[in-house]
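Second attempt. The first submission of Alpha/beta hydrolase had a stray character pasted in from the spreadsheet, which I only caught after the job came back as garbage. Lesson logged: always re-copy from the clean sequence file. Corrected sequence (377 aa) follows.
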Amino acid sequence: MFYEYINGNPQWNLQINRQLEGIKESQKVKKDLQLAIPQLKNTKSWFKTWYDLGIMREKKEDFQIASAYFGLAQFYLSTDDQNKSSVVHKYLDNFYHAHTEINYESYRVPYQNTFLPAIKVLINPNAKKTLLIINGFDSFMEELLIAINFFKGTDYNIILFDGPGQGRALIDNGVKFTPYFEKAVSAVIDYFNLQEVDAMGVSWGGYFVVRAAAFEKRIKNIICFDFFYDGLNTFLRDFNHGVQAEIRQLLNKEAADQLNQLVSPLVYENANLSFLFTKGYENTGTDNPYTLLKEIEKHTIKNIGHFVNQNVLLLAGEDDQYVPFSDLPLEQKELSNANTLETIVFTKETGGEQHCQAGRYDLALHAIQTFLLSHAD
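This time the job returned cleanly.
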């Protein structure tokens, strides 16, 4: 279930639901939330509240809960913040303390004179298939390890990695966000010497996985969890239609100064936009709205979707607060050459209506299992 913890703040509600997936019904967590929610006033109090709770749970060896709280604490910190790296590593350290049941091996995949951190999870020693999981705009690969329980008893082992602009690849190695994600995916496939894989992209990874599959034909089945058609559409969603049109005109004219003067004050006034742009600067290494949006507009399936000839599953949340639901038919049309194309829309009635089915990951993962099973040969 998706819980409305804070009235009028869908961004914060999504992040809390996201990090507390699987533990939010715990009595310990419910008790902590009674203390935490009234204290959340701004990003400063957000950090202090979750960090203090994380320290408390870590001392009590409630490692899974502590990991979630540190994941929340680090979320709005920029890479320039002196606390960022240490809190991220508390998040990761507690995660692995909590999940000793995961049979995994860690790797460093060579990439651009550094490396991408990767994990191979051995679910089934006799598995013949590999599922490559690609994360998104603001996540770490560890967050997606929640999926592994759904693949027990299947013919899959799983590989996850932090790609350019993601997780430790960004924070520790400085590898910046790129629209050309097929290069990172091919590097991972080459490193593990795989002849074929199935691939799932989560959130912004829904773009990355389609982009990768358009140019990397060792990918056989594609899962967009959720669909993601166009980065610029996502970044501009919270501006009114008039401002959106003006921004697009200024981008086309390459009118950098005018665009920056228009956008900067509007971003400052809107918490969701402030997060998107601040994280965008961090991911891409840009420092103003114009240069950021010029990078983000490269993240689109438009004009490349027709290269995809594999089997594709698109998941969509009707009330997705990031990806415009109206983009769905555009992506379906773009994927005109897919071998098969299946779309599942989640609503409030079915559950899973939020971005990436936050609150009901089980619905999405069961749909994914069914899709993979139907294309097992």
